[in-house]
Amino acid sequence: MCTLVAGVVAEAVFDTVEVEFLCVKENCRGKGYGRALLRYVEE
C-alpha cells in the first residue's frame, strides 16, 4: 500500500528550479520528506 505524504509543483528554468508549491502532510513534517523531494526535483 502506498500513502501520499508530500507533493511539489515546480518548473525548471535555465539553471534554476522554481518551486510553486511544496506540501507535506502535517503528521509527516520534520522527517525529511520535503527535503528529499526538493533534492529529487533539483536533479
User: Averaging pLDDT over every residue, what do you get?
Assistant: 92
The poorly predicted ranges are none
Number of domains: 1
Strand order of the largest sheet: 1-2
Separate helix tally: 1
Pfam family, one: Acetyltransf_1
GO molecular function, one term: acyltransferase activity, transferring groups other than amino-acyl groups
InterPro entries: Acyl_CoA_acyltransferase, GNAT_dom
Protein name: GNAT family N-acetyltransferase
Brief characterization of the structure:
The mean pLDDT is 92. The N and C termini lie far apart (27 Å). The chain is built from 1 helix and 2 strands; from the N terminus they run ββα.
Keywords:
alpha+beta, 1 helix, elongated, acyltransferase activity, transferring groups other than amino-acyl groups, GNAT_dom, Acyl_CoA_acyltransferase, GNAT family N-acetyltransferase
